Amino acid sequence: MACTARSEENMPTPPAEHLPVLVPETMDLLAVEPGMTCLDLTLGAGGHSEALLRASAPDGIVYSIDRDPRALEVAAERLQAFGERSRRLRGNHRDARELLREAGVERVDRVGYGDARQIVLATLRALHRHLEVGGHPHRALGEPPPVDGVAHG
Asked: How far is CA 21 from CA 14, 27, 49, 148, in A?
């Protein structure tokens, strides 16, 4: 099966009514506090950026990256109430360091990453729950347990 790159012209526009998933879990794990500077690597429709802005209020700043100009427009509308605290950057998340440098940002306190974040967070939550009840982390992740204390590689 051939894999083709998606151009900006054929990327779907995120719906304005997009409901982000695992927001409470994301916020629990990121532990955002007022005044923090955060980075959302996959802005999309802005749901996680909105949660980061609320958690970092009253003076925290959230930088959000997306390469799709339509997603940036949709998110700008959703996040307009946060004013200058919401700073959207057009580009690819792989270029985050360069995009932040160009924006004059020297450091961020927290970083979130769209779909991968959701999968990772769900896995971490399951692992955490499993360890809390004395289970084995490899079983929580569906891997075989270590043999003689040596983890499988």
From this structure: 14, 11, 12, 39
